Amino acid sequence: MDIDAPIALGMQEHNDDDNQHNHSTSHVYHSESSMNFDYLQGLHADAASSSGGSIGSGSTSYGLVDDSRALDRFVTILDQLDARVEKFRKDSLNLQEKKDYLLMSMDLIKSNELLQNMSEGEREEIMLYIQRVSSRLATVELNVRTVRDASQEDSLSQINALIDTMIKMGDPVIGRQRCQLYLNACCASTIDPNGRMGTLHEADVGPIDKKFESALLGCTLDDQKNIKKRLQALMGYLNKQTVTN
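^ thats the sequence. predicted structure below, dont judge the formating
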């Protein structure tokens, strides 16, 4: 079947736009890729300059750069790399935190009382949808390693199990009360400027879940900070649920 001229022209214009867009995207990609190594150009420039001078003067340095200049150059570049690695790690931790919040959101939906009041067919439809979203999220793998010994790994596992159990309670009022006990335990643990752990009296922070506190104190400092942030976000959600109900 022949294609009408206007339609064919429209398709050609569309293809031209796509080609232009792809060319533009490719140009941006290559530009950004080359920028990733801009800070290394100084090494090549020094080596080339030193090499040129060596050949011209007939010396036997064979293009090696001056030791003191080379050391300064390498230290400067490694400082830049160190800063970029630290930023990359922080960005990755933020992404891991977002993934954790998405997982927690789906757990909250599965335990929501409105879902329990739906018909079996409607509930099944929602659960299948949650499964599809969860499967897509599972395709994103993030692993920013925190150095832990066996005891710290076990403590973190206990914390995660306690929080998961709290989320799956299904009652926002009871969940909020339990979350507050956990948060109080986080607030009771203090860190002084030298990085040493200390504790506040229960009267200063309110009732504490002792089991949670014991597991929390066995976690790394980074894990303790992340656990507190996770609980604060969860408390915000539960507070809204309690007010709504």
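The radius of gyration is 29 Å.
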